Fold this sequence. Notes:
Shape: globular
Radius of gyration: 20 Å
Amino acid sequence: xxxxxxxxxxxxxxxxxxxxxxxxxxxxxxxxxxxxxxxxxxxxxxxxxxxxxxxxxxxxxxxxxxxxxxxxxxxxxxxxxxxxxxxxxxxxxxxxxxxxxxxxxxxxxxxxxxxxxxxxxxxxxxxxxxxxxxxxxxxxxxxxxxxxxxxxxxxxxxxxxxxxxxxxxxxxxxxxxxxxxxxxxxxxxxxxxxxxxxxxxxxxxxxxxxxxxxxxxxxxxxxxxxxxxxxxxxxxxxxxxxxxxxxxxxxxxxxxxxxxxxxxxxxxxxxxxxxxxxxxxxxxxxxxxxxxxxxxxxxxxxxxxxxxxxxxxxxxxxxxxxxxxxxxxxxxxxx
Length: 335
């Protein structure tokens, strides 16, 4: 089979990754499905850990590794005891390696606990491929933590997680404020945002947020503005929490995280609860998201579709940081 693979990502993953046209088809474990991949969708986690933490990469990627977690596809061999059958169309997350998900190839394996059936009516295979990481992250960082009528602030509303997050928050009846650049203001309003802070025109985002009513819940999908975290008490209600989803591995982030945990409030430490986040691999949540999509309450936003041979271009586009929603790679046409 054909598989995009790399052995290191020093500098940038796209300089190392190559197309292997004779890679072996993987052998699934008893709790894994063997899947013929239809499409994959890219996330920053598909390259940031590999590029940013090389010492971990050397341990976890001893042989050739295949990146990308999100997938949609058709089951070739179902996991033992699964209700899914050969030929079923499914979506979810591939692999068990946190650095190399293994979806960017023609066949892969996916755990039974993180694979769900694609709805029959209103969700196509490209749309289903976008859900895995971004959909679960947006859903789990918002839906279990809010109730109808809550005011939610989402920092970064036009990216993959943000697009889903706005829609999930609206689907459960929340008032949504989000940030984005000028060119995306109308776009996020179309997704359902009630109020939008244009960070290109606002010199101080926190000051803009303070002009609004305080929030019941905050999700930071960007992770680059530490001032937003340290001043969260200025716009987040007492007793509520800020969930930090975004941000990559760096020494600056590590130092700031240590300060957040150790510095007491009376010495200038955090005055609101700030928590990091990593999505749980839950098939039940994938199924809930699929239902919302099938009912038309949530839709996938695809910025651009690339062919399998164009994987390098797709990665390069993702790394520009100027993507609305998701980038999808079509691995095979689904009849």
